[in-house]
Amino acid sequence: MSNEPFDVAAQRYRTELFAYCYRMLGSPHDADDAVQETYLRAWRGYDGFQGRASLRTWLYRIATHTCLRAIERRAHRAYPSGLGGPVTDPAGPLQSRRAEIAWVEPVSDTELDPAEVATARHTLRLAFIAALQHLPGRQRAVLILREVLMFHADEVADLLGTTTAAVNSALQRARAQLAKTAPHGYDLAEPEDARRRTLLDRYATAFTRADIDALVQILAEDAVFEMPPVPSWFRGRADIAAFLRTRLTEPDGRYLAPTAANGQPAFGLYTRGHGGVHRAHALQLLTVGPAGIARIDMIHDPTLFPRVGLPHLAPVDITANPVPAQEKSTSCIS
Q1: What DSSP string describes 251-293?
Q2: Residue 321 pLDDT grade (very low, low, confident, very high; cuts 50, 70, 90)
Q3: 127-155 pLDDT tens trace
Q4: Cα–Cα 20 to 30 A to 238, which of 13, 141, 165, 260?
Q5: CA-CA distance, 148 to 20, in Å (whole number)?
Q6: pLDDT tier at 183 (50, 70, 90 boundaries)?
Q7: Which residues, 6+ apart, have CB-to-CB distance to 257 below 8 Å?
Q8: Is the separation of the CB atoms in 281 and 271 below 8 Å?
Q9: Segment 235-272, tens digit of pLDDT
Q10: Can you spell out the DSSP letters for 180-228?
Q11: How far apart are alpha carbons 209 and 84 in whole angstroms?
């Protein structure tokens, strides 16, 4: 057993444990709580830790059981495409917002290990996190530990207090279920950096100008558009464009501030309201694939902005384009 104090020895694993708990629970807030509980339990038991396993493995064991208990206590977090099929009438009304549902939430890249973001980006994408939430807790743990973190089957069996055969069986079932429930775009390869930057620049310009024709040109044919807490979602470039034509009706009423979340390019969407002030409206996460923008995840929760390093009021000079004080906030998406 190491003679290092617990806080020194364990601190080096905090970031990767947070990412693990986030994948398990689908929320950075829940992951924060799980990591805090993991470290509290580990601190209490550190004197009795005999070093029969590595400290990292021991912490993962505690974190796994902490997450499994959390999963048992609450309903799994959902995402619109996991609740039903896509909208077939893009010009029709949207379903009512479902505030009672616990939705999958994004995580800021600043809370993740940069090396993990670079090497395991697709396993952090919001679509992948949403797909994981469909798996039973133990299958979820097995899949993440084996396929993402590359633990050996016997190590996972020891973590879960089961057999290697049971771990291998759970992994096969998890893979089969993931193939059925994984949203489109979770595992797409990204284009090279120059094309990726060009697509993002074109997207930001087209969206802020409400230029639907320009947006259509950079969307993949089978693109997906989701916008929790609204259950309605759209699949296909034509349906997405038809929907946006009913919503993005005025140019220059929006501002996009670049950020990053879940290893993905992201934008904070601000809409212009009273006095011309641009206020936080929704967080957009984009999945960029070889054929264009493959996914737009637009999360209507302004409270997420500080977590991804964005203010509630947009840092833009609107004096060149003033609007009347009585003007209502521009209707954006929902």
Answers
A1: TTSEEEEEEEETTEEEEEEEEE-GGG-EEEEEEEEEEEETTEE
A2: very low
A3: 999 999 999 999 999 999 999 999 999 99
A4: 260
A5: 9
A6: low
A7: 267, 268, 270, 310, 314, 315
A8: yes
A9: 999 999 999 999 888 887 889 999 999 999 999 999 98
A10: HHPPTTTTPPPPPHHHHHHHHHHHHHHHHTT-HHHHHHHEEEEEEEEET
A11: 31
- Alpha-carbon span 60 to 331, nearest angstrom: 46
Long-range contacts of 234-243 (CB under 8 A, 24+ apart): 234/86, 234/87, 234/90, 235/86, 235/184, 236/86, 239/86, 239/87, 239/88, 239/90, 240/90, 240/296, 241/212, 241/215, 241/216, 242/90, 242/91, 243/87, 243/90, 243/91
Q: Tell me, what DSSP letter sits at residue 101? A: S
93 CB burial (10 A radius; 0-12, 13-18, 19+): exposed
What is each CA distance from 84 to 105, 109, 219, 224, in whole angstroms? Answer: 19, 29, 23, 14
Quote the strand ranges of 8-137, DSSP E. none
